[in-house]
Amino acid sequence: MDKQQLTQQGKLLPLMEEFYSLQGEGHQTGKPAWFIRIGGCDVGCSWCDVKESWNADLHPLTLVDEIVEHAANCPAKAVVVTGGEPLQYNMDYLCSQLKQKGIKTYLETSGSENLSGRWDWICLSPKLNAPPLSDLSYIADELKVIIQSPSDFEWAEKNATKVKTECKLLLQPEWSQYHKMIQPIVDYILCHPKWTISLQAHKFMRIP
Hints:
Blueprint: H1 3-8, E1 12-22, E2 32-38, E3 61-63, H2 64-72, E4 78-82, H3 92-100, E5 104-109, E6 121-124, H4 134-139, E7 142-147, H5 152-160, E8 168-173, H6 178-191, E9 196-197, H7 201-205
Parallel strand pairs: 2-4, 4-5, 5-6, 6-7, 7-8, 8-9
Antiparallel strand pairs: 1-2, 1-3
Helix pairs in contact: 2-3
């Protein structure tokens, strides 16, 4: 079987990096997890802090069995799959192998691609230039909207109408605009208490 077939089956993935750390943002902040960052993304956010992930060709195709073995050796039985945009690839095999080892699966996605894989938690971070698919919005456990300018509050509210009632709603300041946007976000949440603030705690702590 060639590399293309294995990639289509989700048994090979372009692995940018994998590491053990604390979850740094969103509802799961502070929890330890093994991070798997998949290369490849066509969403193209101007403020993306991992633009080196965009070109999948820069990252080696890696056997998913090896990735899973590394995750299984981690003390925390939790894996965060992020990118790039992981859902550009078939996540079924990765998730099934992780589940066999009793590992919880957490997904970070823009929601712009069809869902694959079995997930214990889906964090949806919608992007205006590549809006999430409606089916994925409805099953998200967490809606994390990046706030770069005041107009993003309207985008946040638009997406909040598409998620399930129990979905956690979070507003997160874009890192380069943190000092400009933190007070408007605080004020907005005080007036709209269904929202919670998310900070990139890992950057404050200077950890991966």
